[in-house]
Each structure stands twice: as structure tokens, then as C-alpha cells.
Design brief:
37% of the residues lie in helices and 18% in strands. It has 9 helices and 13 strands. Helix 7 packs across helix 9. It has a single domain, classed as NAD(P)-binding Rossmann-like Domain (Rossmann fold, 3-Layer(aba) Sandwich). The protein is globular and about 55 Å long. The protein has helices spanning 25-33, 55-64, 86-106, 139-154, 174-184, 201-214, 234-245, 274-279, 287-298; strands spanning 2-5, 15-20, 40-45, 69-72, 110-116, 159-163, 166-167, 187-191, 195-196, 199-200, 222-225, 232-233, 250-254. It has 299 residues and is an alpha/beta fold.
Length: 299
């Protein structure tokens, strides 16, 4: 377990923030920015250090730590594998969320749970609002939606943040895959008929911490959408990576039908971020600017 603790001024209250899924993209980005928040003690835990699917383990952990916020970055994100590994997807994305929510509620801690654009079916023609009807078309999306429902049921003051197309300089993601393929191949094919919003995990991490710092989270629970600004598709996203890095790899567009996958993807999963921007002091940078930052880190 990694603990980041910084001494504060006497008039400040030390906030203890438990971050599950510490090795995830978002968990890593939270660890990077932790020193920017000197009034917080961060408890970063991995699956090996704290099994969030084990009720007794979580109870014991909360008894030993006075947790104010729990940022749940842990998730089963293997979208295609989930189609044949449904039990494990639901265990992590739903059952474990219920456990965290119950224990957060019992200990007066606020749960901040990360969800996904995959709770929608992708048939919309304008950005999805938090109040729009959900209709996931994959096991992954269904398990994440159930996790949302359990979080709200067992921890009424929970905040759920839906995000999309997450990438960072950590772990495996679309950006790092494109960089590798552009080095290995003369040409690649990328789907051009799935539209959404890329999200730099570092921007999401900062947004979460600004929500906590604003002290508005406890009086404004519920579901929020956060992505970077702007709409694109996977092909255009790849072309932007090629342009910024100066790659000579040829990027050709193909349709979803030409690239079949085990799990169905939403054709349009753009999220409306107006609510989170109006409620909390968060910044929503343009996706292309954030992509440049991330690629700069990966050089």
C-alpha cells in the first residue's frame, strides 16, 4: 500500500482519501498529482493489498483507517473478454461496488465511483445527459450500470462519474497501442464510425480532486459526466496521434462491420459534461490539447 502524507497547516483538516485500483490509469494519475493537495492523506491500494470483493477485508480496513473519501478506480475493463467472463465482470464492476458503498455509508465516507459511456446503447444523435435512458449493449456495460445502481442504493451520497475513451501514459490504452503499431507497421486500419470523447486520465484525476477540494461533493451527490471537450472518432483520434508524433505510418479508415469484436460498441457515446461544469470548479480541456500533453510525457 502506497501512502502519500503531507503535513498541513494547523487550521486545515486532514482528509483521508482511499484510492482503490491504484495501478489503474486513473489510480496512477491520482498518485502523480497527490502532492498538489497538501491537506490530504492518500491511501493507494492495489488488488493484492485490498480485495474489494471481500466484505470482511473492507470492514477491517475501514476500522483501521478514518476514510473521508473512497475513489473507486478498480474495474473489470476487458470489454470483449467480459462477454464470456460475465461472473468476474459483475463481481468487480457491481458486487464489489455494493460492498464499498455499504461500508462507505456505514463509516460516513463518500464514495466516488468511476463508470462509463458504455451504459448507453449508442443510438443517440446528440450528447448523452445524465438523465437519458441507459441501455447497455454489452456485458461490460451492463455490469457497470448495475454497479452504478448498487452504489446509489447503498450509499445515497455517492458521486458517480461516467467517462469515456480513457487514456494516459500508464497501462495499456488506445494511444499507447497506436504508438506501438505505428512503429511496427507501414499502415494500420482504424474504425471511423464510432464517435465519442477521448479523456486524458490526468484531467479526470484533477477534476476529481477539485470536486473534493470544493467541499460541494457532499451536498451534490449523483451521476455526472466528465470527458475532454470535443467529438471525434477512433480513426480521427489515430490520425491526430500520427500528426503530433510525425509518424510515417498510413492510417486507413474502416467501418465497425469490417472490424468485428466479441462485444458490441456504442456507435455514438458522446457525453454531455454541462452538469459537472456547472456544479463543480472543474476544467474540461479540449481533447487534442490533452493528447499533446500525454504524447509529450510518452516521448
Amino acid at each position: 500500500m502506497k501512502i502519500v502524507k503531507i503535513t498541513l497547516c494547523l487550521n486545515d483538516k486532514l482528509l483521508t482519501i482511499l484510492v482503490t485500483g491504484a495501478n489503474s490509469q486513473l489510480g496512477n494519475e491520482l498518485h502523480v498529482i497527490a502532492p498538489q493537495f497538501p491537506y490530504c492523506q492518500f491511501l493507494f491500494v492495489t488488488k493484492a493489498e485490498l480485495d474489494i470483493t471481500n466484505f470482511n477485508s473492507i470492514i477491517k480496513y475501514f476500522k483501521g483507517h478514518s476514510v473521508d473519501y473512497c475513489i473507486n478506480c478498480a474495474a473489470y475493463t476487458a470489454v470483449d473478454k467480459a462477454e464470456t467472463d460475465e461472473d468476474q465482470a459483475y463481481l468487480i464492476n457491481a458486487d464489489a461496488v455494493a460492498i464499498l458503498a455499504k461500508i462507505c455509508s456505514q463509516n460516513n465516507a463518500q464514495l466516488i465511483h468511476i463508470s462509463t459511456d458504455y451504459v448507453f446503447d449508442g443510438t443517440a444523435t446528440q450528447p448523452y445527459k445524465e438523465t437519458d435512458t441507459t441501455n447497455p449493449v454489452s456485458v461490460y456495460g451492463q455490469s457497470k450500470l448495475h454497479g452504478e445502481e448498487l452504489a446509489i442504493k447503498h450509499c445515497p451520497n455517492a458521486i458517480i462519474i461516467r467517462t469515456s475513451w480513457l487514456y494516459s501514459s500508464f497501462k495499456n490504452n488506445f494511444v499507447k497501442t497506436m504508438l506501438r503499431l505505428m512503429k511496427e507497421k507501414e499502415s494500420i486500419h482504424v474504425v471511423n464510425d464510432q464517435f465519442g470523447c477521448p479523456t486524458f486520465a490526468a484531467d479526470l484525476a484533477l477534476a476529481i480532486m477539485r470536486i473534493i477540494r470544493s467541499k460541494k461533493s457532499k451536498v451534490n451527490p449523483g451521476i455526472y459526466h466528465y470527458t475532454n471537450a470535443g467529438i471525434t472518432n477512433w480513426y480521427e483520434f489515430a490520425v491526430a496521434i500520427k500528426k503530433i508524433t510525425g509518424s510515417n505510418c498510413i492510417v486507413d479508415p474502416i467501418t465497425t462491420a469490417q472490424y468485428p469484436t466479441a462485444a458490441k460498441r456504442p456507435a455514438y457515446s458522446v457525453l454531455d459534461t454541462a452538469k459537472i461544469a456547472a456544479t463543480f470548479p472543474v476544467e474540461i480541456p479540449n481533447w487534442e490539447l490533452s493528447l499533446e500533453k500525454c504524447l509529450g510525457l510518452l516521448k
